[in-house]
Amino acid sequence: MKTAFITGASSGIGRATAVALAKAGYQLVVTGRRRERLDELVAELAPVQVHVLTFDVRDRAAVDAAVAALPEALRAPDVLVNNAGGAHGLNPIQAGDPADWDEMLDANVRGLLNVTHALLPGMTARKTGFVLNIGSIAGQEAYANGNVYCASKAAVQMLTKTMRLDLLPTGVRVAEVNPGAVETEFSQVRFKGDEARAAKVYEGFEPLKPEDIAEVIVFMVTRPPHVTIAEVLVLAGAQGAATTINRK
């Protein structure tokens, strides 16, 4: 049975991806910081075999220890989905909170590196595997007040490209999905729990659902070895660019 390792699986795109890959026949390792959410996911997916790891991707030592404690077969997953991360704040650079900057750079960039570094030895030794990074349209288009979030996702895009080159001789494929407006907890996190402000982000149009992105991910990682869909941009039907949305 093929295995998939998914970070940030307690909600949103990560959770939807776990459900979709389980339906596609994968054994799962799901990670996150909220154990109770992950336990709920395990119960929902029964009888699919799911291993749960609780750690913060920003903590390299915790990542390494959690991966080392896995059964050997799970330390070399067939698919790694680097989903954990998020946006914090929406302020012009001169009014930004450095704590928010640290949060985004540590989770979106260093966290991705921490997890990938821990799992690549097994994948490269086996000479097959698939690393799929969750980017964002924000990594392709700058928008006002997006500054550090846009920069972090641009870093994910460049890391994906360079990882693909570095890993090419090993048989490990690397790709990226760049979602547009997806209705998840993303905006609640960005606006520090301000649910009213978060809801306004999705008013007047039908945003993407996490399941829409999960469906794309399953398609990408299940292509035959001679096919790599390297990069996909997924927008809501009413969305033309990062901040250009046809609201009714």
Quick structural summary:
The protein is α/β, with parallel strands linked by helices and 248 residues long. It is 42% helix and 17% strand.
Question: If you had to describe this structure to a student in words, what would you say it looks like?
Answer:
- With 248 residues, the chain is of the alpha/beta class.
- The protein has one domain: NAD(P)-binding Rossmann-like Domain (Rossmann fold, 3-Layer(aba) Sandwich).
- The chain is built from eight helices and nine strands.
- It has helices spanning 12-23, 35-45, 60-68, 98-126, 147-167, 186-190, 195-200, 210-221; strands spanning 3-6, 27-32, 50-54, 79-82, 129-134, 172-179, 231-234, 239-241, 244-245.
- The strands form two sheets. Strands 3-2-1-4-5-6-7 form a seven-stranded parallel beta sheet, sandwiched between helices.
- The chain is globular and about 50 Å long.
- The termini are far apart.
